[in-house]
Amino acid sequence: MKIVLAEKVSPATLAILQKEPGWNCVTADKITDLHAELADADALIVRSAVQADAALLAAAPKLRIIGRAGVGVDNIDAAEATRRGIVVMNTPGANAVAVAEFTLGLMIAMCRDIPRANATMHAGKWDKKTLQGSELRGKTLGIVGCGRIGLEVARRANAFGMNVLGYDPFIAPVIARENSITLVPIDEIFSNSDFLSLHVGLTPQTEGLINKTSLAIMKKGVRIINCARGELIVDEALAEAVKSGHVAGAALDVFRHEPLHKSPTPSPYIGLDNVLLSPHIAGSTDEAQEAIGIQLANQVRDFLKLGVVQNAVNVASLSEEEYAELSPYIEMADRLGQLLGHATGTGTGNTSLGQVEGISLTYNGRLAQLKTDLLRNAAIAGILHGADGVNRINASAAAADRGIRIQEDKREHVPGGTGAALRLTIHWARKSSTGSDRGEWTGLATVLHGHSPRLLSYDGIDIEAELTGTLIVIRNHDVPGVIGRIGTLLGEAKLNIASFALGRRRLSANAAAVSGESQALAFIQLDKLDINAAVPRALEKAVADLRSVPAITSVRVVDLPPL
Predict the structure, then answer these.
(1) Closest C-alpha among 450, 446, 362, 351 to residue 411
(2) Of 116, 280, 366, 556, which one is the catalytic site residue?
(3) Which of 60, 72, 288, 411 has the fewest CB atoms in 10 Å of its CB?
């Protein structure tokens, strides 16, 4: 395993990764050509200077994960990473305390005018009469964004005796109550706050949140703190509100263009004495950087060793406990997808049996209560098994690129159903010289004993079969002698049967009157074969012989990974 640490990280970060046997950690001071170094790398760790753009990712064909030591991922092309099946992780919350403390420090600095007090003293002035300030106690703090940092700010504001209002559509009311936060609509945050602190990420909805309209709603004398993202504020509007006196002060640690001197236009805040500016240092403490490095190293290690996805920005994240519960079902979904993919030919690249138009997934029972993004991606990756570059990270994107519609449904309560099961359906279309045709393949599967992926039904026929190893899937007319003939032909080929599962579909009375028989299905698991080699001649001949049996309508061989 090769990990490239393209920027300087804390010694603790490196120590965690170097503990793993056989892992090669290449540090920034040893890199002369990053593109060349990434040619055989499994993981890349960056901070904010390295631009992980499409060109850089093109030089890293084996890359599986990019770890960002920090929160913002503007320097990483997440869309391109997703297309290439690369997980992008950041480290939110590791610097929460540092940012919260800095936020409170800025609030105190503004209401007590500490910067001016320091400047006048260094200038030899004793300007005590003009430096009378105000207290935080009894003031109203509005927090926009009550995530980890917002909650840490609230806890500290409570200690100062402040009245805390919060706006966050995704926070549970119980969490707000536990932290003495009164949740209100955002307009009430604007109109009632003496101090307004921003702690949200940048989205189309939050960009320019502080603008001429929202500033007009705010009470006169409000003070605004931004330690989140510079793009949240329309700078010209805030600068004008400060100049007019409507906003008593602002403290900004982040900016639309960083550093300020790289901005295409001069900052409108320069020269405004009641605007405090700092160079994006809210999270820059020794303790925070250490915590970020340790958190990121653990995330990268757990992904490379266990497949656990935490704090990913381009795929659903799971805690270690969530992953432990879901992992067997993720593997089951992949195998079920491979099984159905063989039916349509998608798994082998052969589309003669049908072109996939859509994929439907129904999560039953306990699965309906879990995070199912990776489960969905595993099923799609199984269906597209063998397609170039498709994996469990980019499977949904790969399906979208191919015009395949994805539909998902969750059913927590299924009468008479299993505790947790996935129903997977491939909707296909086929064109021929006689016209077009549509149909579907459906499978239902679960996990038994906590580790065994098990098929429960296939194409509407109830059948229980283990999803592992070399399987022969046979459809036949339900007439006497077929099972015996199958056993004889496989025995003659010296292929030992490990398990033999049977199921059948009873036809309606009308259909039975016409055909006189029902349809049967057999799943035959053979003893271990070398699935990495060509299909043995004995198996090839046995399949040909089985297909020649009049009662047998189809024979397929499906190779699934051993458990």
Answers:
(1) 362
(2) 280
(3) 411
What single-letter amino acid sits at 481? G
Give me the half-sphere count of Cα atoms (radius 13 Å) on the Cβ side of residue 25: 19
64, 156, 223, 229: the catalytic one is 229
How many Å apart are CA 212 and CA 214, to the nearest integer? 6
Known catalytic residue: 258?
yes
Phi, psi dihedral angles at 195 (to 5 degrees): -125, 135
Rounded Cα distance, 183 and 171, in Å: 9
> Is 7 considered catalytic here?
no
Residue with structure tokens 């540090």? 27
Catalytic residue among 101, 188, 207, 258: 258
Cα distance between residue 482 and residue 462, in whole Å: 19
Residues near 243 by beta carbon (within 8 Å), at least 6 away in sequence:
272
């949740």: which residue's tokens? 183
Specify the residue for token string 């006189």. Answer: 516
Neighbours of 276 (CB within 10 A): 20
Q: Does residue 92 have a cis peptide bond before it, meaning omega lies within 30 degrees of 0?
A: no
Residue 35 carries which side chain, given as an amino acid letter? H
Token couple for 350? 């052969």
Query: The tokens of 561 are what?
Result: 């990974």
pLDDT in tens, the chain (563 residues): 999 999 998 899 999 999 999 999 999 999 999 999 999 999 999 998 899 999 999 999 999 999 999 887 889 998 899 889 899 999 878 899 999 999 999 999 999 999 999 999 999 999 999 999 999 999 999 999 998 899 999 999 999 999 999 998 768 788 899 999 999 999 999 999 999 999 988 877 889 999 999 999 999 999 999 999 999 999 999 999 999 999 999 999 999 988 888 888 899 999 999 999 999 999 989 999 899 999 999 999 999 998 888 888 887 777 778 888 998 999 999 999 999 988 765 543 333 345 788 899 999 999 999 989 889 999 998 998 866 667 788 788 778 877 789 999 999 877 666 679 999 999 987 655 666 677 889 999 999 988 899 999 998 899 999 999 999 999 999 999 999 999 999 999 889 999 999 998 865 555 444 445 688 999 999 987 654 444 578 888 999 999 999 999 999 999 898 88
411 annotated active-site: no
Task: Indicate yes or no: pTM above 0.85.
Answer: no
Whether 343 and 460 have beta carbons less than 8 Å apart is answered as no
Question: Would you give the end-to-end CA distance of the chain in angstroms?
Answer: 23
Enumerate residues 6+ apart whose C-beta is below 8 A from 64: 42, 43, 85, 86, 87, 303, 304
Dihedral angle over CA of 195, 201, 206, 209, nearest 10: 30
